[in-house]
Each structure stands twice: as C-alpha cells, then as structure tokens.
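ingest -> fold -> write
write: protein_1
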Amino acid sequence: MKKFGLIGKNISYSFSRKFFQEKFNQLQIDATYENFDLQHIEELKLVLQKNKGLNGLNVTIPYKESILPFLDELSPEAQQIQAVNTIKISNNQLIGYNTDAFGFMKSLFPILEKQHTHALILGTGGASKAVANALKSMGIEYRFVSRNPQQQDLAYADLDETIIQEHQLIINCTPVGTHPKVKESPALPYQFLESSHLLYDLVYNPPITEFLAKGKIRGCSIYNGKKMLEYQAERAWQIWNE
C-alpha cells in the first residue's frame, strides 16, 4: 500500500485528502492519504518516524517555506521559488518540488485579457512566491502588497486609485476570507475597482470569498483557486509516480 499525506496547520477543511482519495478509488489504487496537522514544523520529524513507508507529501499554509531545511534536495523550480508544496520520498530522501506555480499559470492563462499586464500580489508567503514566479514567466509585471512591507513592497495603506488602476490583475495569496472567517477580506480600496479588473483568490472555501464578492459588485471578473489546486495536485501525482 502506498502512503501519502498533507502537512499543514488547521487543515481539516483541506481539499487534498478528498481529491486523492477519489483519485485512488477511480484508479483502483491501494493507497491512503492522511492529514498531518502540525502546530509547529518541527513535528515533521515525528510524523516521518511514525509513518515509515510514506511515498509523498503535500505541504500547505504555513509551512511551504519553513519546511525547506528538512529536505534533502530541491527541484530547480523549488530552488528558484524557495517554497515547496510537494515532497517525493524516495530511498529515505525528501525531495521538494513546487507545483503551485504550474497550477496557477495553467488556471490563469485562459482567463487573461490584454489589459492584465500588471498585477498586485497580496501577501508574501510561499504561495505568493509561486504566483510571482508564474507571472514572471508569463511576462506580467507585479508588485507585492504586505502588512509588513520590505523594500519594494507596497503597504495596504499605499493603495490608491492610481495604483489600483495601473494594476488590472489582483491576486489574493493570503488566507484572509477562508472558512470560517468568511466575512474578512484584504484591506483594499474596492471603490476604485472597475469591470476591466480581474480578481483571483487562491482561497476556494468559500467559492466566492468576500474579496471576490466585493469585486463582483464593482463588475470585475472573479476567479477562485479551485482549478489551481486541481492542476497542482495532478502535477504532484505525476511527480510521485515518475
């Protein structure tokens, strides 16, 4: 029997376990997928000790960056992004990959319009790094928006009508608005949004977050992270089976 799982914090809601259990049933594969809910990343050592024979892991918030020191090797893309969401375990070696960038790019490409040449990335965690990597490869310029801005980052208080108009693509890479805190949304000046804007939320639960709902009221195109998750999960499955 093959064993897989998800590393994260407060992940009972997670998409991954249901997705992979359905895949195992569909392909008639003898495999299990378990959630490993860690309060601290150091608990990963205990998970690995207790679960000998693990074949692969997914990694979610908030450990996509802090897991790096625990890995034996990084794929070129994970090395470049400096965030990991997929681990292949082979011969007791933990090899880190990033399939978020692939999933995001594949889901974004069909919905882009000609005005979406500049993006605001909300958040600076592991997911935002993958998004930035994807945007760069697509030739889309971007700026990070953070509660604790570094160097070239923008603070939420910096966002004015000019900046919102100059950035027709806005991507929420923070967990703000995730179930159960569904009434929360990033602190944007939503009144400056127009129908030419595309709002993309990596959050998928609920399907229409407060962030997306506020954009929809302004006539924006909106999109959630469900397709991205499906694409990145399929890519993770390919990696585990290569």
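write: protein_2
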Amino acid sequence: MKRVRGSVPILDIYLSSFLSFRGIEPEFTRQGTRVIFEFPATPEVYDLTKTYNENPSVPVLDFVHHLRKLRSQMLSLR
C-alpha cells in the first residue's frame, strides 16, 4: 500500500473508531472497493495507536457511536 506523505493509512475500522473517539477524525481515500482511513502522522496518533493495542477500557456506547458513524461514512463512499 502506498503511504501518503504526512498521513497514516489505516484499514482497521475499530482502530479508526478508537482514534475518532479520542478526537482525531480521519480523511477517507478510496482504492477500488476499499476505503482507507487516513490520519495525520502526528505523535498523538502513534501514542493512541499504542494505547489501543494495550486494550484500554472505553465507554462502550460512545465507542459504538463512533464505529457506526465511520461505517456509514465508509459505506457511502463505496
């Protein structure tokens, strides 16, 4: 996958939802039938990705809200 300068491409909707929940909104890029979530390449994004991989506790309803929002935006781009 080609890396766009200044952004981090992420295919995982759950990680993208976690980042969105923490206040970092993605830009969407379409490659064929796939939608790629692109986040700015900042230390905050890398720190939150590390936090996500450590399995933190998050409010479920808030997380599901962001998951549904990203999923609907992703499906509208297809």
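write: annotation protein_2
The radius of gyration is 12 Å.
The mean pLDDT is 92.
pipeline exit 0
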